[in-house]
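testing teh design pipeline on a random one, pls ignore if ur not involved
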């Protein structure tokens, strides 16, 4: 074996060892922390008492929610791959979009079922505090006028119609 080949093997070996050490180290560091439960984003700003009541219900359904979300991501990836195809047919696109609609609808149905369980576990005052978050999209801030903490305006606001 030549000197260059031997050096190449040593470099590859060191790189693989560093990768393995990084994976093991990352796993060990992460072990104390668990990833947030599914739907954690929806309850991040909800009052603590409501979160405490919702947590066991969310954990109970977490595997189902994770599986449903995985299906949505898989259908998104399949559709993205399909869109990159050179020879895309109408039928293939219709099937891909139908798969996307089905997985998204299944996910939303499951989320609504979990939401029903959470809301039924709350007293009326807590339900009114949690209700505005039913209409909140992740990452968007709402004012009290749009259905924030005051409990008023529980209906999502539509943007004003744009004139042409």
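output:
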């Amino acid at each position: 074996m030549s000197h260059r080949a031997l050096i190449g093997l040593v470099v590859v070996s060191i790189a693989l060892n560093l990768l393995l050490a990084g994976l093991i180290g990352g796993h060990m560091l992460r072990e104390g922390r668990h990833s947030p439960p599914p739907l954690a984003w929806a309850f991040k700003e909800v009052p603590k008492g409501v979160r405490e009541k919702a947590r066991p219900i969310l954990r109970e359904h977490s595997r189902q929610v994770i599986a449903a979300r995985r299906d949505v991501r898989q259908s998104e990836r399949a559709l993205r791959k399909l869109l990159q195809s050179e020879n895309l047919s109408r039928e293939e696109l219709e099937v891909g979009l139908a798969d996307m609609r089905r997985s998204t609808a299944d996910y939303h149905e499951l989320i609504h079922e979990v939401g029903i369980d959470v809301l039924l576990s709350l007293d009326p005052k807590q339900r009114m505090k949690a209700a505005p978050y039913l209409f909140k999209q992740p990452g968007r801030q709402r004012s009290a006028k749009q259905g924030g903490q005051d409990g008023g305006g529980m209906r999502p606001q539509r943007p004003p119609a744009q004139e042409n």
